[in-house]
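Please check this:
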Amino acid sequence: MKKGESIASNIKIEKLIPGGQGIGALDDGKKVLLWNTLPGETVTSWQLTRNKSSFAEGIALAVTHTHTERVTPKDECYLSTSPWQIMNYHYELTAKTDLLTEIFRQTKIEFQTSTRPDSIVCNIVPQKIQTNSQDYYYRNKMEYALYYNNETKLIQLAFHHRGSHRKLPITGSSLEMPAIWKQAASIVDQLNLNHDEARRYQSLLLRANQAGEVSGGLLENGKPHPVFPELGDTILGDHYSYSHNGFFQINIPIYELALRAIKSHINTDQVLDLYAGVGTIGLSVAQEHNLTLVECNKSAYQEMLQNCQTKPWAKPILAKSEEALEYIQTEQTVILDPPRAGCQPSLIEKLKTVKPTKIIYLSCNPVTQARDVRILLEQNTYQIIEITPFNFFPHTPHLENLIILERKTHV
């Protein structure tokens, strides 16, 4: 099998996996992970994008026995940006909840009942996945490639084909806020009026606030990125400023749902916000508490300083969270919002040793979150009192998950 090759087959899709693909098997038993598939469907033709000794990856080109929840994608470019446009939105929410439960089961954390003797059983179940009615046009940031059409002699906006560096020219997209698409189209129109060259540019990066004001622009190859005007948004009543490419949430309305959930669990005077970014979690949920925020990225830290100017109860620290372990205290709430890789072992071990009152863990990767939480539960020091998933990125496999860990009273 060669990359890019179209392959005739008869692959039965068993289930969806956390990465978002459907999984099936070739006649020789080799596993295949395929986009554009749903459970129970049979793939009769697919394109290979990756071939490893133990598994292959690809994109289904033709399926039979289509799932009852399959729908026609809204965008032609859906495989590049939001491959779960193929399913009914209610089914997506169910699929994500089921995948979350399976991720924790594989990490030997189960809810209410156990299917394996070495599992830790929690006496709760995940809450209903939190979402709103805006499952399209929700992204406040988008990065486009530029494609030169040799037939029309014009530059077009583009994304990349999934699993490839090849560009896919687009005429529309339903994920980003309309103000972003309008600005992107205007910039491309100007490039064409100026007879500019697409190859000059790395990408077009744009961001919008909730008022529809757009910042960002073209990033040229081999040149420092320009400094674009900052943006501002109000989150839970407080104003925050941020740069077009800064550490700021993509879907503000759903982010506010998560912040409200976190805020309801802040009941200690001391609060430590690790992996704090520009500070929006801690500053939004721990007003008038003794708040310490730790962030290692210098640009994000500078934005955090600006956001802390009118909040004397907040103490920003420039450091890696794994190197700021001395700030962890026993009578404290610790907020974790790490990158997809999760927390470093040294941080988890420090939490196990110090045993803060409460640990609030918001994760963009439930796989590494489950790994970290499993370690924190092993000493029987903590219990999970809430699990709430949030659909920050509709029509994609991505899921944010909130776990509240509370120290047991006997400790």
